[in-house]
Every structure is written in C-alpha cells, then in structure tokens.
Amino acid sequence: MKLLVVGSGGREHAIAKKLLESQGVEQVFVAPGNDGMTLDGLDLVNIGISEHSRLIKFAKENDIAWSFIGPDDALAAGIVDDFNQAGLKAFGPSRLAAELEWSKDFAKEIMVKYGVPTAAYGTFSDFEEAKAYIEKQGAPIVVKADGLALGKGVVVAETVEQAVEAAHDMLLDNKFGDSGARVVIEEFLDGEEFSLFAFVNGDKFYILPTAQDHKRAYDGDKGPNTGGMGAYAPVPHLPKSVVVQSVETIIKPVLKGMIAEGRPYLGVLYAGLILTADGPKVIEFNSRFGDPETQIILPRLTSDFAQNITDILDKKEPTITWLDEGVTLGVVVASEGYPLDYEKGLPLPEKTDGDIITYYAGAKFAENSRALLSNGGRVYMLVTTADTVSAAQEKIYDQLKKQDTTGLFYRTDIGSKAVK
Ligand code: AMP
Ligand code: GLY
Question: Among 2, 239, 293, 359, which residue has the least CB neighbours within 10 Å?
Fold first, then answer.
C-alpha cells in the first residue's frame, strides 16, 4: 500500500515515518515535506498543501490508498471534502467539522450547547463593546483572535489595560487580519495544562497518551508563544481519573454534539485542557495532531499505525496498543529569533541514530550537496524514551551539548515541571 501525508513539519515527519514502519506499506509520500525526511526513506512530492487538485491528481496516479492530512489550514480549506468528492479517502475532518479549530466562537457555541466545561466568554467584533466587557470582568482575562493565527493570536492579560490593548490590536489595528476581525474574550483558568488526543470516526474514538507541550520560547515559560518548543508523554503526574473524567465530560459530549450538528468528526481531535479546581476544562480544540506532541506520542505506538488508521477509516474496530512504561520526551531546536525574524541556511548537525530520533521541520539540502541547512523557525527535534522524565532529559540534553547549534536555540527545561 502507498500512502500520502500532507504537510511539511516535524509532525508530518513523525506521522510519515511511523506509517512507513507499518507492515504492508511500501512507500510513503509527503507533500511538500522537507529534505530532512528523505533521510528516513520518505519520498517528497513538490506540491503545496493548498493545491488540492494537483494533490488529488497525484494521489490517483500513484494509487494512494489514503492520505493523512497534517496542518490545520489545509483542513480549514476543505482538503478532505475535495479528496472525498474525487473518490479519495483522507484521514482528517471535513471543513465543517474542522470549524472546531478554525473558529473559536464556533467551538465555544458547541461547548455551551453540549455542556462541555470551558471558560466563561463573550465574542465581539465591536471594540467598544469588547472594552466594556473587559472592564466589567476585570483581570486576569484572556483575549483571543477568533480565527487561525498559528497559535499566536492569544493574549493572557494580567491587567485590564493589557487586555484592552490586545482587543484594540485585533479589532481596530487588524494585527491578525481577518482572523482577528472577531475576538473571543474569556475567563482566565488557573491550573496545569495538558493535551488529550483521540483518533475519531463519528462516535467511535480511541484516546492517545496524555502530553504536555511547552509553548513559550524560553526557559521558565518566559518569552513569546511559539508553535511549541518541546513536549513529553505521558504526563506522569496526571491521575488516570482525570483522563477518565475528560473523556466523559469533554470528548464524548463534543463528538455527540458534532454528530447532532450534522458535522460528524473524522481524524485526530486535539483537546487543549486545563486541570482547574473544578476539574478539566477546555482551552481550545484543534482539528489535527499537535506539533510537537505528535513527535513524542507516535513513538509510543506499538501497534501497526497504517492498519489502525485503515480500520478507523473503514469503521472497523482497530487494535491500538501503546508502550505502557517510561516517558517519551522531545526538545525542539529552533532558529535564533523564532518566533519572530530569523536567519535561514545554517548548517545542521548530523542525524542521530540509535534510540534518539531526529525529526526535521525546517531543513533543506544545500545547493550542491546533501548537507542539511536550516530553513524555518522550528528546525528539528530530538526525541527519546527512557524510564523517567529526568533520564530522558539527560539523554537528550547530553546529545544536544555534543551538537553544534550555532545560530539555533532550544529550551533547557523541557519536562522539568514533571520532575519537581
Ligand atoms: P491557545 O492558542 O488557545 O491554546 O492559547 C495559548 C495559550 O494561552 C494556552 O496554551 C494557555 O497557556 C493560554 N490560555 C488560553 N486560554 C486560557 C484561559 N482561558 N485561561 C488561562 N490560560 C489560557
Ligand atoms: N503544540 C501546539 C499545537 O500543535 O497547536
């Protein structure tokens, strides 16, 4: 069987690598992918994620059994609908089901309607009304651009002034373009954050190990929000009962709600949660796998990934098994300056072997050689599995110290919350 993965980052590297390791998979294509993936035997296809008709043509001509869609913007653009209309199978939600991610207001409406615990909120397109709401609620308070903003359209404001400024930036100064034409303003939730993922088809779902991302750029959760600088799974200090409660109060009702709304969900559902004093509450839903969480979750899958997804697509009961010991931890290496401006074209260290995996995100071969150069904000990620978080940290950070990371940076405290 031949498969296609759509996307180009570390997440897609991890998905494609795991699919290629599955029995009965002869070839995995990634469109457009990045050159680093070819070191793992993946085949790149030079077609962009928004070129649906070219992707469809490629899938048909190459006998692709099904495609796995990585990025949120492709899903929001209706790539799955287009594939399905062309008679092709794709693992990911339809445009209407993906609205859970591409409109925070829609996600909130669904949560309220189906009783899913989340922060109290208001949605505004008028600045004066937003300002009045902020002043009435007081701080801390959270201001979010309604649409997709690469994880950067959220301001956790400690003061009323900061919140008003954020609303001003989004509604009047168009800082996030159309994504910020409406804002969701919500109650600040206090507690530990974690991510819960599920493979879903309609009302059937299969929960993945819990994960914790590190969204801020620098150590100690300082600096600007990024796509994610490192992660680990499972979260060892999170009681199993919290997962059970999250499934009952969050995953089940939202999937039921999506069916009732005529938007049955297919694909990976990603719930960003905060464990508050009143139990787990939703910060956001994403309609896809997380990046970098995928890179630390999928290495823990011990069953046949391609077979699992085939079964879920066919509405058959999959046999999904996970490593039930130890922790998988990964640290992202990014270009200095990320998430703002950064240089490209810096030489990258050799790919690791053995039990440290290198997943590439922004990597490209030099013009005349197969030397890899940096080509993006997040460049690569090292991932390993060990008995404990601190043992995994030691392995990764020892390896990173041996690498020449000139012009690049990484956080030195990934997983430290779990160690204390
Ligand atoms: P999001 O893009 O919605 O995941 O938000 C980015 C980050 O902002 C989250 O990972 C949280 O750390 C924080 N955040 C978002 N919403 C809230 C909230 N209601 N209360 C506290 N923190 C929040
Ligand atoms: N790791 C955060 C995200 O994928 O949105």
Answer: 239
